[in-house]
Prior knowledge:
single chain, mainly alpha, three-stranded antiparallel beta sheet, 151 residues
Amino acid sequence: MKPTTSPELIDHIGWDLWRVTEGWKNRFTTDMVVRGFGWFGEARGNLLQHIGRNGVAQTALAAKAGMTKQAVQQHLDDLVRDGAIERVPDPDDARRKIIRFTALGFEAMTVANDVKRTIEDEYRHLIGGDAMDGLTDALRAIIAHQDDLQK
Length: 151
């Protein structure tokens, strides 16, 4: 048998993007936990980004989060116990529940915005305003391209 050779492992932008994303997420999560919002450091915290200002139907949340309905249900139960969210009847369909932030949940999202701005300001200071603006524009162009490919 001929020995197999392994492919060359190349450096690529995907690896760089992944490392920056992981670093950003770790910093964000750590800062949110330190500020008293421990659920950001757990899987249930990932649901919060999908809720939005006016809430979201619980049935839509599983699809948005890419999770099973059972997992979402369990995480929502925990977030209700934490006081971050509440379930309210959907005014358009009594069978559905709307997930929305409580006052504590909105407070957490306000703090999250401050943390995000702090991290972004550090990046801007590190690479300069023009480079940060260029990076933002480039990332938005890539995102738009990916969105077009998925249509």
